[in-house]
């Protein structure tokens, strides 16, 4: 569809048709893998139990998605832009679960706005500004399944919410390599007795040639009884159980040496009972159409008096082979270890996933 | 997409390609606004409570929607036509709630049929013929949020159901300005002891130059225990609680003076316990790419013995600015007052909404 | 859309634009009918009850669906392929119920894979290899509503599941008319105490000129408490109640004599308590743009000691008229009789459906 429209524009130019403009582009990613997931669980000092499962799953290298988007030139450097993008589980055909307030038709992104010399302003459901920086500085190409951060972070304090409904987003233009973004989401759940929840995020980054470095902050005002934020189980739109303002800070960078691309990041996450410190490192090395990538994450959570300290670690090795610009075959192994619970007898979960898959973008 | 296909047709004509026909058009509306909703509630003679909430919502000027539609020329003046159209809440990405039997993928319209010299006949889920007339004679461009009727009508008798599933629709051709439509929806819920529910609607209208005038009727046969109709809460596909045949009558008109466009309508709605009388007036005045519109509604419900008489009033001021044919910025204020309840100690709800938004069609 | 892209390719070739390739095709079927369904029910020797209902339903001649699909030429005879296809009920606009694990956005098919000289391998949710053969050798064009098998088979042993989530599919190339397919779906629901469920299917067929003949097998490993398979009510993703491995075998054939096309099939289905034997016959006779088709099915189930023997029969007459290659009008009558229950006082259900409808593909 996209190429079609480009071709059309070319034809239009040739044939002297002035208004051969597209008004909507249909696009997406179809990504699936076959693999094995081995989970070892140990509660306190009890014996370890082991379960190994064969799986066909979606969203290995990238999240499977489909969407509609468009941009209309309004003249004077101004454009109207919109995006409607949903996630699906290719292994069942179902809408994929996306916290918070997810599991919806266009749950990944849904917005309409204006773009000009001032930047872009839009209204709807957006990826937070925090997540945007996290994504571009994450290891393993920010894979939803194989990036080590996906499985390891949030060991103590629930990881930040990737999206915000009922939000206003502003993305700045680029000033000599410096750019930034702000997203503010309204809980719209104020009552006679409690405030509305909200999600506020921002990032600022510097990108110049091989270097990208940035800082991001996210703050989630959660009110007991509110349903604007998800819980750590990832189930969409549940009720928040405690009143808390969670704060997330992230420093991230990447440097492309040509022979290798390095990424790294350091985060902190604070709730009213815990503080987590997390870092991740990644490297990818291209070999013609192929590439090898490795990632490592470590997370550590300290709790208030009486709460167990928790740790998480993860390591990934991923090989990719580009069959074309739009189609990539991949193989990966990810090994994670994660502690959970509140007392000394916490649970240790080790997961080893090996997978072979294919990603196609359209 | 639409423009693309038009361009294609033009190119096809030039290049001598005879069969450059599209088989499906992807289209939609993305509409969102940021605003404030202040609600004042008073139960009987008790003190008024007040709640003010900031919101980012969808469907301000028009309902956000996406759809697939097509028309195939079958020769001899006959075409096959189809439409599959769904509503979404751009502020969450979710499928929007549409009563009755709504909240579904293609909940706005889903039909296939034939169009010819005789008119159009189609099968599926349709907007009722009553709603079609109401839409084109409603104030504030029939906005789902700012038309005064949306918030004020249905004060006593639940307002008519906009759509009918399991329906046959017929739209006549135009006879010297006169045209009409009929939609008949089958409840398909007949049992050994109760009849099936149904929704029957028709309209007839005369449109000539600046004048449009029409009459519409809708009749909803509701059976206790049936689930073909919604309740006044708008939740989709609930169970009807009483057996009743509700009757709706509407007279509507619009006249375009050039410097201003006037609209107006008078309705009655009858249930087995209540009779409502409703009217609305609207005016819109264009100023180049901008326009200012005002709307007013009033509704009055008289109940059977022992039931409180209820009133509703609403007033809207809306400014629009067309950034292009497809993109419109808008600002609006709507102020409504509505009574609800059965006894003298009924509830009075006043809502003041102010909003700034953007609508983009694709 | 499809024709558009073909036209584009033609234009591209003319205008010397080399890369006028589409990356996604939007396609579907919109099918609806108006009809009457008369159901007569008799429990044991009790008096027969009769209920006649008027309906507007979808999916008469073919299942209403919409989807996205694409194929990318990767060079060397290799292509990347994907399909995302969902079912909808055109009479309500809702996503249609598809067992097992259905009722989902792309519940019909969702996969991505590679196609080459070796055949096609894909990952995701697939139609089973068993269903593929059943479909091409079924009577009444494998209509979801009017094929006699749809209403009659599965009288004792629940009929096979048409689709498998979490599956790997392989379709072989054609070897001198011989080809085959295998689909293996993983329940992914292994626990510490029970195995994972799975669905395994294969078919092999020979197609040469007017003749097609094939054999198919499907095996469903169902575990009590598992949710990978549907129940006989067709409700998606329920919990399986008994541990059982169901086995389905099918022999099917079709022969096109030109003046008439004959189809036929013989199946067996086995559960741990029942064995069903089923056969079907069909004929279709073209008359220019029109065609007349007739179908007949018979099913017989023998149960373990104490379980009633059950029978089912069905007969259909269907006339079609092609208004174009993409649009077909149809009229049908289907008469079925089906026994259900476990004891001698089983229920006999007779259903007579008459319908007039239209199918449009896009």
Give an overview of the whole structure.
The structure is a homotrimer of 362-residue chains. The first copy, chain A, is mainly beta. Helices cover 7% and strands 57% of the residues of chain A. Chain A is built from 3 helices and 18 strands. A 16-stranded antiparallel beta barrel of chain A has the order 1-3-4-6-7-8-9-10-11-12-13-14-15-16-17-18. The longest helix of chain A has 14 residues. The first copy, chain A, is globular. The N and C termini of chain A lie close together (8 Å). The relative contact order of chain A is 0.16. The N terminus of chain A is likely disordered. Chains in contact: A-B, A-C, B-C. Chains A and C meet through α1, β1, β2, β4 and β5 of A and α1, β3, β4, β6 and β7 of C. Chains A, B, C: Homotrimer. Chains A, B, C: It holds the Pfam family Porin_4. Chains A, B, C: One of its GO terms (biological process) is monoatomic ion transmembrane transport. Chains A, B, C: InterPro entries: Gram-neg_bact_OMP, Gram_neg_porin_domain, Porin_dom_sf, Porin_Gram-ve. Chains A, B, C: Keywords: Cell outer membrane, Ion transport, Membrane, Plasmid, Porin, Signal, Transmembrane, Transmembrane beta strand, Transport.
Oligomeric composition of the shown chains:
homotrimer
Helical residues, percent of chain A: under 10%
What is the strand content of chain A?
over 45%
Order of helices and strands of chain A: HEEEEEEEHHEEEEEEEEEEE
Radius of gyration of chain A: 21 Å
**Poorly predicted runs of 5 or more residues of chain A:** 1-20
Distance between the termini of chain A: 8 Å
Mean pLDDT of chain A: 91
With strands numbered from the N-terminus, the spatial order across the biggest sheet of chain A is 1-3-4-6-7-8-9-10-11-12-13-14-15-16-17-18
